[in-house]
Amino acid sequence: MASVATSRPVIVLASGSPRRRELLARLGLPHRVAPPRVDESVAPGEDPADAARRLAQLKARNASGAWVVAADTVVAVDGRVLGKPRDPAENRRFLELLSGRDHWVHTGLALRAPTGETALVSSTRVRFRDLADWEIEAYAASGEGLDKAGGYGIQEKGMVLVEAVEGDFFTVMGLPVARLWQALARLGYPLTEVWDA
Ligand SMILES: Cc1cn([C@H]2C[C@H](O)[C@@H](COP(=O)(O)OP(=O)(O)OP(=O)(O)O)O2)c(=O)[nH]c1=O
């Protein structure tokens, strides 16, 4: 039975990431995008997973709405945080660092609701295969990695760089959707109506 759309509160997505927006849309969650301006820098010596959770909370607290969802993705290799590459040359250096080894992708998730708030972090280990110089050069030059933490997109052509993923795939894409679903359920969001609609 279809339910009335008005019974599903609109979720304010406190993030400008097109990937997060796409995932909310794929779940059928009504949403609007309102990215807050916050300082997203990771403090020197800050644990990367803690930083991801802290930054997600910061984004959630700086957005207004009854139901707010925010996330932040931090890529770390050997304890070193790789942000978004500034240009193709830096993207090339990131890929050289990631080639043939494991790294971590931590995505913090924060929710604010009329019923309470919650924050968590989801961590996935990703292994890159050994990349040839020409691949590093071509991928960096393509620009695909420039707006992404770590300088690659697992959901786009960057998928061919990845040898193994241990943990949640969507955490790498920037939104741990199963954890989001559980958190929404715990906070009393009417999820059955989303799937009924
Ligand atoms: C590693 C990886 C990251 N990413 C993206 C997800 C995030 O959008 C981005 C990490 O940067 P974030 O700062 O988490 O997000 P954002 O700048 O895109 O949006 P906002 O700050 O407004 O919330 O990297 C991928 O899309 N695929 C990947 O494989």
From TrEMBL:
Its EC number is 3.6.1.9. One of its GO terms (cellular component) is cytoplasm. The active site is at residue 72. It comes from the Bacteria. Coiled coil: none annotated. The record marks 19, 73, 155 as: Important for substrate specificity. SUPFAM superfamilies: ITPase-like. InterPro entries: ITPase-like_fam (IPR029001), Maf-like (IPR003697). GO terms for molecular function: dTTP diphosphatase activity; UTP diphosphatase activity. It catalyses: dTTP + H2O = dTMP + diphosphate + H(+); UTP + H2O = UMP + diphosphate + H(+). Pfam families: Maf. Its cofactor is a divalent metal cation. It is found in: Cytoplasm. GO terms for biological process: nucleotide metabolic process. Keywords: Cytoplasm, Hydrolase, Nucleotide metabolism. NCBIfam families: maf. Belongs to the Maf family. YhdE subfamily. Nucleoside triphosphate pyrophosphatase that hydrolyzes dTTP and UTP. May have a dual role in cell division arrest and in preventing the incorporation of modified nucleotides into cellular nucleic acids. HAMAP family: Maf. This is dTTP/UTP pyrophosphatase.
